[in-house]
Design brief:
- By secondary structure, the protein is mostly helical.
- It contains eight helices and no strands.
- The chain folds into three domains: 58 residues; 61 residues; 36 residues.
């Protein structure tokens, strides 16, 4: 009997049992007389998942013509500040980007809300836009607002000691 490709055997097993765990694959293939390690199973599954993700990404890129719809809407609104939702939809349709009036309205509302929050914080006079950007970068780097608060509390304790 010719030697079967172990990676192909793993792929075939996952094709018929997509939710199987690595240890299940090792046991099932051992019963068929194919010796594989859990590490090989994980490597093959990881490569398969990456290939599937690449296919999905390529498919979604062709759907949107490689354009981020939100950026397209914001770009058009930046150039045409007084444009109505339907005007934005028509203009972007000419560029090959399909959006709805409700989508444009949602983007406008979110953008407007963010700007108002920044304006309100700057209006208090205690902090400026650079400080807000630094704070947002800090929160993003540490992962969450709760973690950022905890880190700041520890920093204050250290400052009190020094």
């Amino acid at each position: 009997m010719p030697e079967m490709n172990k990676s192909q055997a793993i792929r075939d097993y996952y094709k018929s049992n997509p939710t199987a765990k690595g240890s299940e694959v090792v046991d099932a293939l051992r019963k068929k007389g194919i010796t594989v390690t859990a590490n090989l199973v994980n490597t093959v599954k990881s490569a398969h998942n990456k290939a599937q993700a690449d296919k999905r990404a390529a498919k979604s890129e062709t759907k949107t013509n490689g354009v981020n719809k939100t950026q397209a809407v914001l770009g058009y609104l930046k150039a045409n500040k007084k444009a109505t939702n339907s005007e934005v939809v028509e203009a972007l349709a000419k560029q090959g980007v399909s959006v709805t009036t409700n989508y444009v309205a949602t983007i406008k509302a979110k953008h407007h809300t963010r700007r108002q929050v920044v304006r309100k914080a700057v209006a208090t006079g205690t902090i400026g836009i650079p400080e807000i950007k630094s704070a947002l970068a800090f929160i993003k780097s540490i992962g969450s607002v709760a973690a950022a608060k905890q880190a700041l509390q520890v920093a204050q304790e250290i400052r009190a000691i020094v």
